[in-house]
Amino acid sequence: MNIGIFDSGIGGMSVLHQALATLPHENYIFYADTDHVPYGTKTKDQVISYVDEMIQFMLSHNCKAVVIACNTATSAAASIMRQKYTIPIIGIEPAVKPAVFCMDHPRVLVMATPMTIHAEKFHKLMDRYADDATIIPLPCPGLMDFVERGDLDGEDLHKYLNELLYSYRDHKVDAAVLGCTHYPFAREQIQSVLGEEVRIFDGGEGTAREMRRRLAESGLLRDEQRKGTICFENSQTDGKKIELCKMLLDL
Ligand code: DGL
């Protein structure tokens, strides 16, 4: 059986990367819903229906668990999907906790899509750590588009980040959370604008650990010593994004 991992686009590859490091013997299906990307500027109802379609696809392709490798889709739809389906559904959320405890009362910048930042789930997360850190939420509309285009070291991305992060440049924050699975692909560029001393966190590793925990708890870990397989799917049929996915994983 497979583990289904999906995102609105290729950002979820940052989660697949961590999953392969943590659970290399599993078989994976990675689905990028390029037809509907970006999710972060759609309505909540639209995102719920895309996520539902993705989960049904995974169920019809022999999946034993589904990972929503998208912070936006997790905040909009994970709890609703868990009520509807019985297989384990693992989500991702901005890695606020490790950032908050990386030092005494840090200033933590949380970068994410507008939908993630405005969701009730994120407000609850901020409230939980309000006494431990100064948390600064920053919606980043458009940032994921650079990653989706594979445009990672151009002048345009540099200009975009300089404008977006203008008030936080040169170590004005202690830590930054990459709260969208696309952003780890622009990590170096974000780091260079914020300053080298700023600690950067993303939720990929924590999500892979949670996958292992949930699968173990349900007795679903694959008992096999050989490496598993990866199958790439895309809602666009021209194959271009699948090539980009393979390139990002060095396949
Ligand atoms: N990768 C998705 C996330 O983690 C969002 C990108 C989008 O807006 O579709 O939030």
Tag the structure with descriptive keywords:
globular; 18% strand; alpha/beta; binds D-glutamic acid; 9 strands; 11 helices; four-stranded parallel β-sheet; five-stranded parallel β-sheet; 251 residues
Explain what you see.
The protein is an alpha/beta fold and 251 residues long. The protein is built from eleven helices and nine strands. It has helices at residues 13-22, 44-59, 71-84, 96-100, 114-118, 120-128, 143-148, 155-164, 187-194, 204-217, 240-248, and strands spanning 2-7, 27-32, 63-68, 89-90, 107-112, 134-139, 175-178, 199-202, 230-234. The strands form two sheets. The chain has a five-stranded parallel sheet, with helices on both faces. The protein has a four-stranded parallel sheet with strand order 6-5-7-8. Helix 1 (13-22) links the parallel strand 1 (2-7) and strand 2. Helix 1 crosses helix 10 (204-217) and helix 2 crosses helix 3. The protein is globular and about 50 Å long. The two termini are 22 Å apart. The site of D-glutamic acid has 17 residues, from helix 3.
